[in-house]
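User: I'll paste a sequence; please echo it back and then give the predicted structure.

Assistant: Echoing your sequence first, then the prediction.
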Amino acid sequence: MRTYSRLLLIAASIFAVSIGANAQQSANNLFFNEMGEIADNLSQGAREGVRPIEFVNPRFDDVIWSRIVYRIIDLREKMNFPLYFPEEASNGRQSMFTTLFRLLQEGKVKAFNPTLSGREDFSEDNLFDFDNFLQINDIIHSVQTNPATGERVYVIDDSDIPNRNVLQYYLKEVWYFDKNNSSYNVRPVAICPMLSVETEYDLQTRPVCWIPFETLRPFFVQQEVMVTDRNSAALLNLDDLFIKHRFGSYIYKVASQTDRMILEYAHSLDEVKSEQARIKSELLDFEQDLWEY
C-alpha cells in the first residue's frame, strides 16, 4: 500500500512539474506582452535554438540523374523583397546580406573568392579575406582587440553595411533523383552576393564571395522574414524560403561539357528565354517522365 501511495505521489509531482513547464512555455508564447504590445518573439526576426531540417544525404551510387543549375536572384523582383528588406536592420529584422555580412564579420562561416570566370572554388587556398573586402570597398569600420582572447574584432554600424548595393545573388543548386528513396529533390549548394560598384565610367556588378549553403542553414533557420504585406504574422525563415523555392530567379547556366553560360551560345533575347524555358521544363518534367509508362 505504501509503495502504491509513493508511486501516486511521484506521478502527481511529475504531472505538476509538467503543467508548470507548459504554463511557463505558454506565457512565453503569448501574442501580447504585459504592456499590451506585440510580443518580441513575433515582432523580431531571430529565433534562437531552432535547427534546420536535416537533408537526406544519398550515396553516390544511388543518384542516377542530376543537373547542376546556376541561377540569378534579382532582389528588384517583388517576390524577392523578403531577401532585401529592411534596408537597415531594425526590430530584430535584417536583410539577407546583412545576415551574411555579420556572419563573415564574426568569422562564423567560411567564404571563398570567386574565380575570374565567376565559378566557385572551395579550396583552403582560396579563402575570402573579409578585411580586404572592407578596405577595397571603403566600408567604414574600426578594429578593436578582445582583451580575453586577443582576437581582432570589427566594429561596423548597421548603416555602413552596403546592403543597398547588393541587388542580385548567384545561386548554385543541384537537382537529383535518388533511386534508393525513389525521390526527386533540389538542394541549394552555394550562394554568392553581387555588389554593385560605381566606377568612373559606369556601374559594375561584381561577385563578392561564394558561401556554402550548408554552413548558412543553422543561421538562416533562426532568421525570419515577412513574405507578404497583407499579413504581419506570415513569417518564413530564410532556410525554408530557399528549401521551398519561394523566390524568383532565372537560369544563367547549367553544368555541361562546354561549361558555357547561356549568353555565350544564345545570340538573342528570344533565344536566351527559349533556352531558359527549355531547361526549366526539363527539370520540372523529369519526375513525371520517370514514372510514365
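The first strand starts at residue 63 and ends at 74. The CA atoms of residues 75 and 167 lie 5 Å apart.
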